[in-house]
Amino acid sequence: MHKAHWRKTALAHRRDLTPQHVQAQSQALAEHLIQYFTANPVSSLHIFLPIRKHNEIDTFLIWEQLRQRFPAMRFAASVSDFQTFAMRNYWLENNTNLVENAWGIPEPVGATLAHDADFEAVLVPLLAFDEKGFRVGYGKGFYDRFLAKCRPDVRKIGLSLTPPVPAIADAAEHDIKLDLCVCPDQIYYFQD
């Protein structure tokens, strides 16, 4: 099946989720990430902040638990430019002001700029992913552009509420594969 099919299917599935289900699944993801970063530490992590109206994973919960467990880890999030489909990244501190943009995405305001090469790992949003590590997002290419500018060894970590689909038939060369994807039930690892 193609990206459009998986995108439509995933969005329909998300609409049917209850907030309680999303919270429970987000907690399971947080526990897997704590285990992963305990074994594979990083000093800097880029996270995405959730669009709550789309039942996205509660990365606020994940961020809080990672901050408590790894107090030396630095976190950053992005501000999206919907004219150029690029992201500018900013460090998140305890007092960083977050404001929702017109699309419901919380964004840091007045924070310190972070550079794409600063991150050792990136939590990547997705709607679906396949058994090879390709992902389907909302279709604007924000994360493919961003990840292409990150350091070559950045760990690309997908977060998903559902297991992989068999294959994304129209995955393209410019699509950047995940290194792993964390799901509520397990972590999926991908190799080139």
CATH superfamily: NagB/RpiA/CoA transferase-like
The stretches of 5 or more residues where confidence is low (pLDDT under 50) are none
Give me the Rg, rounded: 16 Å
Shape: globular
Distance between the termini: 21 Å
Helicity range:
25-40%
Order of helix and strand elements from N to C terminus: HHEHEEEEEEEEHEEE
**Mean pLDDT level:** 94
The CATH level-2 architecture is identified as 3-Layer(aba) Sandwich
Q: How many strand segments?
A: 12
Strand order of the largest sheet: 6-3-2-1-7-10-11-12
**What is the CATH topology?**
Rossmann fold
What's the quick description here?
The chain has helices at residues 3-15, 19-39, 59-69, 142-149, and strands at residues 44-46, 74-81, 86-92, 97-100, 106-109, 113-114, 121-124, 128-129, 135-136, 155-159, 180-182, 187-189. The protein is α/β, with parallel strands linked by helices and 192 residues long.
Characterization of this structure:
The protein starts with a helix and ends with a strand. It has a single domain, classed as 3-Layer(aba) Sandwich (Rossmann fold), CATH 3.40.50.10420. The protein has 192 residues and is of the alpha/beta class. It has four helices and twelve strands; from the N terminus they run H-H-E-H-E-E-E-E-E-E-E-E-H-E-E-E. Strands 6-3-2-1-7-10-11-12 form an eight-stranded mixed beta sheet, with helices on both faces. 33% of the residues are buried. It has helices spanning 3-15, 19-39, 59-69, 142-149; strands spanning 44-46, 74-81, 86-92, 97-100, 106-109, 113-114, 121-124, 128-129, 135-136, 155-159, 180-182, 187-189. Helix 2 packs parallel to helix 3. The radius of gyration is 16 Å and the shape is globular. Belongs to the 5-formyltetrahydrofolate cyclo-ligase family. This is 5-formyltetrahydrofolate cyclo-ligase.
